[in-house]
Amino acid sequence: MESDFYEPEILYYQRRFAEEGATVHFLTRLWGNDRLVFRGHEHGMPFEVTESFEDVDEFGLRQYAAVIVPSGIVADRLRYTEDVDRLPPAALFLRRAFADPAIVKGIICHGMWLAAPVPSVIRGRQAVVHNNLLGDLRNMGGVFVDRDVVVDDDLVTARTGNHCHLFARTIIDRIGHR
Hints:
Blueprint: H1 7-19, E1 27-28, E2 36-39, E3 46-49, E4 51-52, H2 58-61, E5 66-69, H3 74-78, H4 89-98, E6 104-108, E7 126-127, H5 134-139, E8 143-144, E9 149-152, E10 155-158, H6 164-176
Parallel strand pairs: 1-4, 5-6, 6-10, 7-8
Antiparallel strand pairs: 2-3, 9-10
């Protein structure tokens, strides 16, 4: 989670996954804070986050059935690193999630930006992204599929934040099959 999130998408996940009995954790980089409040892109809606992906160890990561990178500018903000010779902490977290095939990885719309620093997780995989990210996907070695939602084993991708209902349904179904 970060600022410039797409409010309808995040609110949908918050309620839809809970309907399925899932516990939803919104993670961010807390920068040493106990909590951060982010603002949505369209309406400036505040959203408080109290959990950091930097605190998730290997055991904790295995407790997640899915890791979702949301749409909007969230991924661009999360791929910030103060040391240009090191991968961004959020990209490292994503790479760790991709190393475990039991975890469903969901990336929607501009969320694919977070995978750019770790292109090996996308190379050779079928995916869909927002049309603005076609070049990014291809530069990572991904295979573009022109559908609203694409499943490639443990990877679920969706075209835009407006497809969050189809994306969430697909992730719920994938979790149920594992």
